[in-house]
């Protein structure tokens, strides 16, 4: 069973930065898209950023210009560089990887931004 392992979450002051990483526990062949989602308490899980196998990216309006998603295909790893963090970015962040058949989710990592 493939697992996605996230790291890099934590507590940071507003205006600070964090870098999230998500690695697959074993090789996943033919990954199409990789992405990051987040869920704040009492709210639904929302997409933050997605990167395709070709390197195209898409961001939620709320994070454009502040967050950058990247991937290392050889390592089956996806990253999320988060700059200029705001208290409203506080949430559990989940990574996601999808093939044409399967979709995998990480266990989530907490990001807390203090004002």
Task: Please sum up the structure shown.
The protein is mainly beta. The protein has no helices and eleven strands.
What does this structure look like?
This protein has 115 residues and is mainly β. Helix content is 0%, strand content 52%. It has strands at 4-7, 10-13, 18-24, 33-39, 46-51, 57-59, 67-72, 77-82, 91-98, 103-105, 109-114. Strands 2, 4, 5, 6, 9, 10 and 11 form a 7-stranded mixed sheet that branches. The protein is globular and about 40 Å long. The model has no long low-confidence stretch (mean pLDDT 95).
Give the arrangement of secondary structure elements:
Blueprint lengths: L3 E4 L2 E4 L4 E7 L8 E7 L6 E6 L5 E3 L7 E6 L4 E6 L8 E8 L4 E3 L3 E6 L1
Parallel strand pairs: 2-11
Antiparallel strand pairs: 1-3, 3-8, 4-5, 4-9, 5-6, 7-8, 9-10, 9-11
Number of E-state strands: 11
The end-to-end span amounts to 40 Å
User: What's the rounded overall pLDDT mean?
Assistant: 95
User: Low-confidence segments, ≥5 residues, pLDDT <50?
Assistant: none
Based on secondary structure, the structural category is mainly beta
**What would you report as the Rg, rounded to the nearest angstrom?**
13 Å
Q: Estimate the global geometry from the Cα principal axes.
A: globular
- By DSSP (H or I, 4+ residues per run), the number of helices equals 0
Helical amount = under 10%
The portion of residues forming beta strands comes to over 45%
Q: SSE order in H/E notation?
A: EEEEEEEEEEE
Instruction: Please summarize the sheet with the most strands.
Output: 7 strands, mixed
């Amino acid at each position: 069973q493939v697992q996605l392992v996230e790291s890099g979450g934590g507590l940071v002051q507003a205006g600070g930065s964090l870098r999230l990483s998500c690695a697959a526990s074993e090789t996943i062949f033919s990954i199409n898209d990789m992405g990051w989602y987040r869920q704040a308490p009492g709210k639904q899980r929302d997409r933050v950023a997605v990167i395709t196998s070709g390197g195209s990216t898409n961001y939620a309006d709320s994070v454009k210009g502040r967050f950058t998603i990247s991937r290392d295909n050889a390592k089956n790893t996806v990253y999320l560089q988060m700059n200029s963090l705001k208290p409203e970015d506080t949430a559990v962040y989940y990574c996601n990887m999808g093939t044409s058949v399967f979709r995998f989710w990480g266990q989530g990592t907490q990001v807390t931004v203090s004002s």
